[in-house]
Design goal:
With about 150 residues, the chain is an alpha+beta fold. The protein has a single domain, classed as Peptide methionine sulfoxide reductase (Metal Binding Protein, Guanine Nucleotide Exchange Factor, Chain A, Beta Complex). Helices cover about 20% and strands about 25% of the residues. The strands form 2 sheets. It has a 6-stranded antiparallel beta sheet. A 3-stranded antiparallel beta sheet has the order 2-1-9, with no helix packed on it.
Length: about 150
């Protein structure tokens, strides 16, 4: 039990990885700049890899035609053509747009998950699971706080 608590604490202590907080990205900002442009929830999700409450994002039930952009740098990252209702309470897509995201392993829940981030500014979007629809079988389960929808 003590080992589990130690591992959990060490994982939480590690915080945001250096590649996401200021790694090699086209768009970089200081912590103060990020905090000035984002709400506390957006900052928690995008820069500290947090999660918004399920069913709290209006983007979850948005099915208009258009594209979803990274709130941090305005990169077009997901298309409404790839969106579906996963029933989870978070906006879900079966794939991202080409060259839009980076992924990394996440062990914060003491099991391996795949995190997805903006490839241009490192902002955290959510996680990718293997229980989505065809043709990919993937579910990109995203935080609406990280996204801006732009109608077609």
């Amino acid at each position: 039990m003590k080992r589990r608590l130690f591992l959990a604490g060490a994982t939480l202590w590690a915080g945001t990885p250096s590649w996401a907080s200021g790694g090699n990205f086209e768009v970089t900002r200081t912590t103060a700049e990020w905090k000035a442009m984002l709400t506390p929830l957006q900052y928690k999700v995008m820069r500290r890899e947090g999660t918004e409450r399920a069913f709290s994002s209006p983007l979850d039930k948005n099915y208009e035609k258009g594209n979803y952009h990274c709130r941090g740098c305005d990169l077009k990252v997901y298309s409404s053509n790839h969106k579906y209702d996963s029933g989870t309470g978070w906006p879900s897509f079966y794939k991202s747009l080409p060259n839009a995201i980076r992924t990394k392993d996440d062990f914060k829940m003491l099991r391996r998950r795949t995190e997805c981030h903006c490839r241009r500014c490192g902002s955290h979007f959510g996680h990718i699971f293997n229980d989505g629809p065809q043709p990919t079988g993937k579910r990109h389960c995203l935080n609406g706080a990280s996204l801006v929808f732009k109608a077609a």
